[in-house]
Amino acid sequence: MTLVLVEIDAGGVIEVSRETLTFARSLGDLVDAVVVGDLGDAARDQLASYGVRTVHHATGEAFDAYAGAAWAAAVQAGLRASGATHLLAAGTPRGMEVLAHVAAREDVPMAANVLSAEGSDPIVVTRQVVGGAALEEMRLAQSPTVLTVAGHAVEPRPADAPGAADVVDLAVDVSEADLVARVVSTEEPEPDLSGGLRSARVVVGAGRGAGSADGFGELLELTELLDASLGVSRVVTSLGWRPHHEQVGQTGSRISPDLYIPCGISGAIQHWAGCSSAKNILAINTDPDAPMVTKATYAVIGDLHEVVPAINAEIRRRRAG
Amino acid sequence: MTNVLVCVKRVPDSTSEVVLTDDGQAVDGRYAGFTTSAHEECAVELAAQVTGADGGEATVLTLGDDDAVEQLRSSLAVGCHAATHVVAEAHRFGPADVAREIAAVVREHEAAGRSHDLILLGNDAADSGDFQVGIRLAYELGRPVVNGVNQVSVADGVVTAQGAGPEGHETYRVPLPAVVTVLEGGVEPRYPSVQGRMKAKKVAIEQRTPATEPAGPDRVRLLLPPPAPSDVQILGKGADAAPAVVDVLEKLGVLSR
Ligand SMILES: Cc1cc2nc3c(=O)[nH]c(=O)nc-3n(C[C@H](O)[C@H](O)[C@H](O)COP(=O)(O)OP(=O)(O)OC[C@H]3O[C@@H](n4cnc5c(N)ncnc54)[C@H](O)[C@@H]3O)c2cc1C
Ligand SMILES: Nc1ncnc2c1ncn2[C@@H]1O[C@H](COP(=O)(O)O)[C@@H](O)[C@H]1O
């Protein structure tokens, strides 16, 4: 039996959790899910279509506000209730955190950002290390095997035969200590405008090469000229240059435009995970050896602050002409 | 006064090409050089801010080979006051081993009258990327842990930590002693001043050997992903490439408007 910690948002089961359920089925065992907090009919139906046998559902006051340790207690209860020997979650911040808690509490190893798994007894997983620039083969010899699945490593695919997805309430023993570190307030989220990015026909990308929060003028102009959406790397969101909903990649949106124009983006594996389904890529980068350049369809070698204004001017010239 | 322990790891600089050691057990940093990951630089900055605000002491700790003293010195140059070096080959330690070693230092310091009320770590190490040392350490010490935040402050024995969550900007308030793991982005690490560098050179670094034999990571080996075949068409260099770019835009039919 494989147990998957599934995350749910307003739209139901989040995409990376659906990917993880798909990955879980490939391990060959039956798949159960554990859900903490609100479930909802839509999410339950999705879990059924992804082949889930039983949904172990933890609700109650202890879960009103997020606490990593309390969630871990719920997952442990799910392990006992399902008799699972494998425990998986998507490689999201929550997934990583909760599974690390579980691994510490169960005193077993955890493998983060797994791409594939082979064998049994022991399972050997391949996972991303060094920011995806290298891979590690790791042995998981203890039970339960605990791993998180790297975002967008597999396509989310419903099961050939749906599961029953019977919802069973979990009795969870949450201790006071498990609630000490819990969220005490959550501020209004940024409006999630990533829908437009995910379905955009053309996406202009911007990375560290933009240089600063003020370095986006000509990129936004190109975005406008092409009626495109702006997508950025994590460096850009981490530095606070642009909002998170514009992030493309493993921990951002996955895009599949006809044309992606990444400017000043190196093409780290986690970024690539979000843009690899673009039909054409036109990279603009000062470094001819940047992975984004070598993987692109077309490339211009140069400073984006020179190249992009020239492109904008050329587009305007042809439109006027 | 808050006494802070901040844990940093010497990691190979992976911005250029990654090379593996012959035995496939570690990244060979001899060519690219070594660095401290961005998350940990921000943790060091937060340690300097917290102790700067209330007169506490910031201790930086690393488990690494002799050369890892470089990471300790650079942290001392930007606001840490003391340093502890567990001299060992980091790649022979799994995340549970590292957590156990840090806990051993904390307990021993505490027994000697030096408490570490707040322990800061990175959310994940830039090389091994295990995403778990901080959480395992918290369980070793029986302390609460907040994960993946980028702002940290302390008042009245309570740490307030903030960061981005799936539903918005989240705040935690946790009584000390506590463990907090840090993501980059909330603070700008300061540059070392000349004065800071001079001071850092004079600090006596506490050297230790590991408290226990490591169980080791469950690593079979590291490997490099196969290079993707490239059939990129270079349209040109610099601004001169613009007409060729717009030709492509026209060809792909994304210019029509
Ligand atoms: C668990 C995990 C999840 C992650 N998730 C994501 C994710 O979802 N999305 C994501 O993007 N990253 C993600 N990352 C981070 C990822 O590993 C990289 O650090 C990041 O994508 C790099 O961003 P960048 O390309 O903008 O910056 P860099 O890697 O610093 O690259 C900058 C590039 O710009 C070029 N450049 C510099 N100046 C100019 C100029 N003036 N003109 C033109 N080119 C220039 C440089 O040659 C270089 O290629 C994740 C990492 C981890 C560990
Ligand atoms: N060898 C080490 N020495 C000091 N701190 C470490 C070491 N390894 C990991 N850490 C800390 O633990 C954090 C998480 O590491 P990891 O769980 O390995 O991804 C890092 O960001 C560091 O702050």
Coarse morphology of chain B:
globular
Low-confidence stretches of chain A: none
Q: What is the first-to-last residue Cα distance of chain B? A: 63 Å
Radius of gyration of chain B over all CA atoms, rounded: 22 Å
Number of β-strand runs of chain A? 17
Instruction: Name the quaternary structure.
Output: heterodimer
Describe, in plain words, how this protein is organized in 3D:
The complex is a heterodimer of chains A (321) and B (257). With 321 residues, chain A is an alpha/beta fold. In chain A, 31% of the residues lie in helices and 27% in strands. Chain A has 10 helices and 17 strands. Chain A has helices at 15-26, 41-49, 68-82, 93-106, 194-199, 217-225, 234-238, 269-275, 291-295, 304-320; strands at 2-5, 8-9, 12-13, 31-36, 52-58, 86-90, 110-118, 123-129, 134-140, 145-149, 166-169, 183-187, 202-206, 229-232, 259-263, 280-285, 298-301. The longest helix of chain B is centred in the first third of the chain and has 17 residues, at 38-54. Chain B has 257 residues and is α/β, with parallel strands linked by helices. Chain B is built from 6 helices and 14 strands. In chain B, a hairpin with a 2-residue loop joins β9 and β10 (168-175). Chain B has a 7-stranded parallel sheet with strand order 7-11-6-1-4-5-12, with helices on both faces. The interface between A and B is large, with 87 and 77 residues. β17 of chain A pairs parallel with β14 (233-237) of chain B. The site of adenosine monophosphate (AMP) has 23 residues of chain B, from α1, β4, α3, β6 and α4. Chain A: Belongs to the ETF alpha-subunit/FixB family.
